[in-house]
Amino acid sequence: MATIKRFEDLDVWKVSRDLCDRLGVIIDSDALKRNFRLIGQIEGSSGSVMDNIAEGFERGTKAEFILFLGYSKGSCGELRSQLYRALDRKYINKEQFQELYLLAVRISVMLQKFINYLLQSQVKGLRKKNPETA
Predict the structure, then answer these.
(1) Are 99 and 80 in contact (CB under 8 A)?
(2) So what's the pLDDT on residue 1?
(3) Residue 115 lies in a domain
(4) Is residue 104 part of a domain?
(5) How far is residue 130's CA from residue 40's CA, in Å, rounded to a whole number?
(6) CATH number at residue 51
(7) Which 8-state DSSP code applies to residue 5?
(8) N or C: the chain end with fewer CB closer than 10 Å?
(9) How many domains does the chain divide into?
(10) Which letter, b or e, does each residue of 47-77 get, where b requires 16 or more Cβ atoms within 10 Å of its Cβ?
(11) Is residue 125 part of a domain?
């Protein structure tokens, strides 16, 4: 398995970025009808998914990375709840909801699998580098 040197190389970060981009298209189309609070919450939670992956990676320890992946997973759940609110208010249609919801679920699954992998891994992280396991 190749060593990941940048968070930008992580598949889960790439998919999270795609989700943010798709949400941005909907927000920029004025679909949320000037509900600035919901826009802010959706922007915040979706951005938090990818940002926490990046921050945890850059912290340099496995324990901190796992912690931040958990924050990212929590933000993904928060986003799914916000998608329901957008659907219920008819800011997005059922097809948009389904596409975005499934992508968010996919990210949650990826995050949990990554957390499980890291919990089993002997790699400690860049700040705790062990020449035999780093």
Answers:
(1) no
(2) 46
(3) yes
(4) yes
(5) 42
(6) 1.20.1440.60
(7) -
(8) N
(9) 1
(10) bbbbbbbbbbbebeebebbbbbbebbbbbbe
(11) no
> Which residues, including other chains, have CB under 8 Å from residue 101's CB and lie 6 or more apart?
80, 83
What distance in Å separates the CA atoms of residue 52 and residue 19, rounded to the nearest whole number?
15
The structure tokens 């000037």 sit at 34
DSSP-assigned states of every residue in 87-130:
HHTTSS-HHHHHHHHHHHHHHHHHHHHHHHHHHH-----STT--
> Looking at residue 123, what is its pLDDT?
77
Q: What tokens were used for 112?
A: 């949990």
pLDDT at 132: 46
Six-digit token string for 120: 């089993």
- Residues of the chain falling short of pLDDT 70: 1-2, 126-134
Q: Which domain holds residue 108?
A: 7-120
Residue 2 lies in a domain: no
